[in-house]
Amino acid sequence: MNQMAAFDASQSLTSGGVALESGIDELGVLEDASAELGDTGALRARMARDGYLFLPGLLDRLQVLDARAEITCRLHAAGVLEAGTNPMEALTESSALSHSLDRNARTALTLHNAALSTLLYDGPMMAFFDRFLGESTRHYDYTWLRAVPPGLGTPCHADVVYMGRAERERLFTAWTPLGDIDLQQGGLMVLEQSCHSPELEKSYHALDVDAHCTNGPDQRDAWEKGSNGWLGTDPVTIRQRLGGRWLTTAFTAGDVLIFSIFTIHASLDNRSNRFRLSADSRYQPASKLADARWIGANPPGHGPNAKRGLIC
Question: What domains can be seen in the chain, in order of their start residue?
Answer without folding.
Answer: 17-291 (2.60.120.620)
